[in-house]
Each structure stands twice: as C-alpha cells, then as structure tokens.
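Reviewers of the previous submission asked for a worked example of the structure-prediction workflow described in the proposal, so we include one complete record here. The input consisted solely of the amino acid sequence. No template or homolog information was supplied to the procedure at any stage.
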Amino acid sequence: MARCTAPVKGHRTASGAADCPACGGRSRYSGYSGYGGDGSYSRSSSSSSSSRRSVGGSVSRPRWSRAGSSVIYTTAEVTTLTPFREIIEKKASIPSGPEFRDVFLCHAWDDRKDAAQELHDLLESKGVSVWFSEKDVALGTSLLREIDKGLAKSRVGIVLVTPEFLNRLAGERAGIAEKELSALLARDQLIPIVHNTTYEALRDISPLLGSRSGLSTKEDTMANVAAKLAELVAS
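From that input alone, the workflow returned the following structure tokens.
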C-alpha cells in the first residue's frame, strides 16, 4: 500500500498533494495546512487564518475570560496579562465603594481630552471603574494627594503611552504623569497601553517602562484593548 508523504513533504500546495502516491491530490487533504515537526497536523481555513492574522499571532484564551466571550487574545497577550490577573485576584478583598477603583489611568496632560478620555469612556461603558484625573480631582484639592489616594485604592494601573506622553518624558515635562508613573512602577502593577507609537520609541526614552509588556493599538483597536482590560479586572 502506498504511504502518504505528508509527514515528509507536506500537502501545503495542490501539486504537493497531487504528487503523493497515497492521496493523489484528493480534495480531503485540501483543508489541512500540513504536518508539523511532531507529526501532528492542523486544519486551516480562510476564516481561522484571517482571525489569527488580525491579532498578530496564535490565538489563546485566558482562564479569566468569561464563558461565551468574543474577545480574542494572542498567546503573548495572555502571558503578559496573567501576572496582573494574579495581583488583581489577591486584591479581591478590597472594599467596594465610590473611592475604590478597578483601574488607575495614567496619561499625559495633552491626552486628557482625546485618547485618555476615549479609553476612560470605553472602560466605563464596560462596567470598569476608572480613576481619571479629569473627574476625580476636585478644584482646591491637592493633586498629588489625590493621586496617592487613587493609586492606593486601585487594583491595577495603566499608562497610556502616546507621542505626547513620550514628548513630555523626553523633554522632562512629564510633571504629574511622571510622579504617577514612578509610583506605579514601584508597585509593579503597571500595564503600558501603547497608542499611535511603538514600544521601540518607548524604550528609547524610558528603558524601564519599555521593558514592561502590555497592549498596543497597533495590533488592535482601542475598543478591543478596553474589552481585554475589562475582562482582566472583572471579579
């Protein structure tokens, strides 16, 4: 009996399948991408290939993702977010109340009406409580004191890294954002969200922050980033 040559030569092309003495180009092999090094094979289709390309890598599902969720993660994103989920689970006993938040949002002053506001609104629309200086610092109060309280009563921090944020860091004009950033880095609870820039640009200006893994709107939409953060902090 003729033996299938897929484990050696693969059936990735029509000609490869046609040359196989066992298969002879039969269509039942057209749905497989071929054999891997361990002898296993995987099915490919236009829809699954498209979804994998759209998220920039292999698809994975984190253990905290709710049943029936349509949020798609890459394996790298799951690896990145897992330590933060463990921190959040340890903080599950934080009392509830208006002063306690799921997320502390650190951002550049220039982004307060644009990207930072967009991310804040998307998170809150998904039920995430967000500490945001635009609404949480009242007139006449100490900004630094309010920041300290916000950090202490938030489960996790995110920093929105934009060209404006990088310009402030590079020009030593970060001000309050720099103080927030230092506190978050010291607590090891900071997730960078890179928006309209790159991790390479971030590492050039802040190697310490650039060494942290996070999420990027280059690979995903801001709405999907917010959806992943919402699942991450969900009880």
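Residues 5-18, 25-56 have pLDDT under 50 and may be disordered. We consider this example representative of the routine output the project will generate in years two and three.
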